[in-house]
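Q: Make up one entry.
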Amino acid sequence: MNRRTLLLCLSALPMIAACGGDDDTPTPTAAAATTQAAPAPATPSPTPVPKLGGSMILATTTSTQDSGLLDVLVPMFTKQTGVEVKVIAVGTGAALEMGAKGDADAVLVHAPASEKKYVDSADLVEGKLVMHNDFILVGPPSDPAKVKGSMDLTTAMAAIAATGPFISRGDNSGTNTAELNLWKAANIDPKTGVKQREETGQGMGATLNVADQKAAYTLTDRATYLSLKKNLKLDIVFEGARSLLNIYSAYVVSPDKHPNVKVAEARAFVAFMVAPETQRVIGDFKKAEYGQQLFIADAGKKIDELGQ
């Protein structure tokens, strides 16, 4: 390049800068900006969610699957993060054991008293309260035990024990644990003191179907019952006691105790479950369809605050 050409190029730089230039053009100084018309403020773009990719295993209770909630949430999570989720829906007891053995990366369960053992052993870490609903007693419309007239839960359980039949999950799930606690509170031995008590060893949906076929009573979470209600003849016969709260939490399986855990993916899932948009979806899930919430979103709350 000759000197004359160089001078012409240098003299043109201010004009190029004023016109915007290409990606290599320096940003105008603050002083220069004051001499130009202020541009209209741009609408901020949402912060992009990092795309992790890969896959993970989620061990969870059957109620999150049977209610249809995971059919909504898992695709949302995958879309945001690129992480494919293999859902294994079992009883909470089995889900907790999967975590303890390192056979899952994250767990979503609903039995706080049972969870404590695994938190204390450091198999489950970074737990977050996600949501709650409640357990309800359901039974045939004829209500042979006259549970609907019961003044309290203990009276209701005693009436069912004397009349039966009662269908139990019998699978060490959160629901099964809650059922056994109700018999204990009523001072009733479920093995000998409940007329025609049967155990299915299956999930909530299957147990509701068995109870329906046998015109029996059972304990269920509200979400699964409402999701299947159109195919059931069972009615709610008792609800509302504080001891029937059904509390869900999500945990990361400890990478320190289980080195093969996909910790980044598990942490992303737990964070997703308590994120504001996810919590909104949880609170709205099937609310319009049933006229009530199937799940109450609880991120940021304490267990003692629930049900108040």
Q: What stands out?
A: Residues 101 and 189 are 32 Å apart (CA to CA). Residues 3-19 form the longest helix (17 residues). Confidence is low (pLDDT under 50) at residues 1-47. The first strand starts at residue 55 and ends at 61.
